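A quick aside before the break. I want you to see a complete sequence-to-structure record at least once, exactly as it would be stored in a machine-readable document. Don't worry about memorizing anything.
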Amino acid sequence: MFRNTPLAAAVLVAFATPLYAQTTATPATPETASQPASSTPVAGQSTSSQPADSATLPTVKVTSQNNTTADFAPDVSSVGAKVPTALRDIPQAAVVVPKAVLQSQAVSSFTDALRNVPGITIGAAEGGQIGNNINLRGFSARTDIYLDGFRDRGQYYRDTFNLESIDVLYGPSSLYFGRGSTGGVINQVSKQPTLKPRADVSVQAGTHDRYRTTVDINTPLTSTSAFRINAFGQSLGSSRDVMKSKHYGVAPEVKFGIGTPTEITLSALIQHNRDQPDYGVPALNGHPAPVNRGTFYGFTDDRTIQDVQTLSARIEHRFNDNLKLRNQTQFSHYSTEARATNAASVLTGPLPTSAALTNGNYTTIDPSRLFVKLQGKDRNINDHSVYNSTDIQAKFNTGLIKHEVVAGVDLSHETYSNQSFATTTLGLPSNTIAIVPLVDPSYTTRPSNAKTVATNLAESSANGVGVYANDTVSIGEHWKVVGGVRWDRYEASIHNSINLPSYATQTNYFTSVRGGVIWQPTDWQSYYVSYGTSFNPSLEALTLTNRQQNLPPEHNKSYEVGAKWDLLGGGLSVTQSLFNIEKTNARTLNADGSYTLDGDIRVRGYQLGLAGHITDKWQVFGGYTYMDATILKALDGTAGKTPANTPRNMLTLWTTYAFTPHWEIGGGPIYTSSRYAANNNFVQVGGYTRWDAMAAYHAKKYDVQFNVLNITDKNYYDALIPSDGGRAVPGNGRTFLATLNYRFF
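That is the input. The structure line, written in tokens, reads:
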């Protein structure tokens, strides 16, 4: 499977690590016990007593000597079984990016937070879609983003101001989440009210006119209830010319019955974004055009305005320690008004009749003599969704076998509308606003003689029902078997005012399965094998390409084998896995314009993860992913090609060291190898390594932190867009940030 790569030796060495660690481990001593470390076993690990003659001591989890420096290695994930589950009990690769890592990196955007997750690449606005567009292990995950367990399908730019962590589960996971999840799912975990008062304020300023303020206030109301509110506001510039954005948001939440058998939580998220849309740089000679990093193809009055309102209610009742019932409801509304421009064809001359380059835009003409056609991407988008989920968690024994069952019913109703517009300037072809030089285009407002007319209005709706059950069976002290099944009914329809099809409807039924075997020979080792499936209906995103309406869903399956270890007394979590994900009936385009389900896309790879303490002062968080992705079969000429936006190698590492009780430094690289902008592989975007660094002073009441992003001012491309031959959005240049965090309690 990894023939022709240098990873075979690395895998052997990595799997030998726990054996070496076991033979060289040093038992805790009274001297180490006196250090500021907790002796609490890691959550989810076995606490069963050892034989009297065993020299094995309970797992010790090392924590920082500084109370203001939180741990980089959470013990549980919110997405492994739809309820908080110990990472070692999940038979799939999972990464939890905690708030501590985000604060250390001065991360505020969802996209920047995901740079800590190997296997994730960033897409940009495309095909009527705006906001966070994610690829996970080579497959689109735009509709696989969740907020507290509910699908967060809105097309907006998410912020981290109200997040406790971001949890990623790799591989097909329709068992718990229904449609989608080919490469995995991403769950945002919101902050929760607690009975401990707090009032935190953070202010940040940086180069490129970056300013940000956040507030986090938690107030107990009674001995069993509390109210918490998080808010933020920011104004951000960029090393890209013209680019700027202003965002603000508030997230109130109240919780009743804290610590009692019945807990009720009511929460909301209200966010407003105003951004300058960026459709990137066109290709030239098979790579992004060699223009200055700041070059912007658009107009100064372009804008994207987004509003998000999400209301949630959750009630949990604990009958006893072995039986728990939960019901959750979420209502969301997302609206987007986009007045945007993209660089379309590269032309050999300044006239509308000039020849357009294709297939990677290869030419011997000097870039200074080339031109770019600018097209409008104006549209108004409205998304509504109502989700309800009821699940029961039960623990019981059948003889000597222990069961942990999660079963439930998911209900959903979603609507979507997209009114598109075409803008044409007098004297130019349809939907052409301007023709500008490829090198050094001028920045102006949209021409006054440009006329905008409404074109297609797409209106969609969908209803879904899912019923599932999963059982984790413990056999003895060292073995667990995980198995589950889900049945889905997904009914969707779409109406187009101009485009085809004028009306289409489809009802899909699908049964998803998940299975895994876990072997845990000690309380610090866990080995697993697993299998899972998922499905992708044609109307999954409530949008549809004509002639796909009669197709059944695509099928996905995944095989995975891996290991999870808690080394260095439980302070350092090390995970690794080998995986194989295959979409066995991918939609492919026929020569006559119709589609069939006879494509085959496969991604094989290896993943390594690190999180936690090497010493009580030294923390690390990072990972590496190797992806061997191939389009095995397709009728559109892409067979044998590499899927878009799927680099072969990705590495992320962040490490900090508290060299005094108050001073801390940190930093690390982000590496991504070269990748293609589209499945046809005409346009390749080079790999890059970006280095970031941090220095902080921690006191009881406050922190002062300095971050430098992209220390070397590396010119690299961040997000990729497959259309118009392939476009790429440049990343930010060197950025300095200064942050002050103040705690009133």
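Two observations worth writing down. The chain has one domain: 69-445+473-743. Residues 7-24 form the longest helix (18 residues). We'll return to this after the break.
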